[in-house]
Amino acid sequence: MNGLNFFNTPLAIDKNYLMSFLTEMIIGFKTNTLVSAEKVQEKFIKSLDLQMSANSNGASKYPVVFNIIGPIVKYSTYNTLGTLDMQNILRNIDANPNISGVLFNIDSGGGQVSGTAEFADFIKNMKKPTIAFTSEMQCSAAEWIASACNMKIASPFASHIGSIGTYLSFQDFSAMFEKWGAKIYEIYAPQSTEKNADIKELISGNEAPYKERLKIITDEFISTIKANYGDKLSDDGHVFKGKTYNATEALKIGLVDEIMTLEQALLKF
What we know:
Elements (H helix, E strand, L loop, with lengths): L9 E4 L1 H17 L5 H19 L6 E8 L13 H13 L3 E10 L1 E3 L3 H9 L5 E10 L1 H6 L4 E4 L5 E3 L4 E2 L5 H6 L17 H7 L4 H22 L14 E2 L1 H7 L4 E2 L2 H5 L3
Parallel strand pairs: 2-3, 3-5, 5-6, 5-7, 6-10
Antiparallel strand pairs: 1-4, 1-8, 7-9
Helix pairs in contact: 3-4
């Protein structure tokens, strides 16, 4: 699945964040300012190398800041590093004896469901101590990922934490194409009675099958959050329904363990 294909796929993302991201992508296409997946990965690795080189001067052990900023996608694409490539980079970090821990610097409204559970599970099983730190947004898929860290910390100015839930953004362009003179034919093999059944039902006006699909995904999301937080997280009647919290509110119910600056958080290692 291409990382830019946010439409017609289950999303764990804050809707306002999705709209702002799509606007940014459209402008990027029009102005030809989008960076290729290869360049994104190259820039990310170079930034980490520079950070580790600077930290290693005079120190035998040092933490690493690993940025998760922007939309979360499984495969690297224009302007965005995918979670699969992040995992490959983190494997090397986790094996580096000089690194004392990894601080995930998160500022993201979420993204695709695809790949998120796998990435969170990878972080949960890392040998290095991990901290999730957010300066502003840690929503949906980003919260899923943060829940896997050993400690969760927010800046005093963090404004959106949580948004635990999923939804589908679906567009049917067939009427527009037909207005342009295109005729669309869909022919299914007689054996394929269940193929695309939920989408066909959605187009016909029946949301129930797709809602059931989203329910299964969201049940997994909530179950993972509960398992990762344990007794630290209190259910206030809203947290598992998609509500977002500022730093103080998140601390009150246990979505974050402490409130402090990034510099202070790094001293935890």
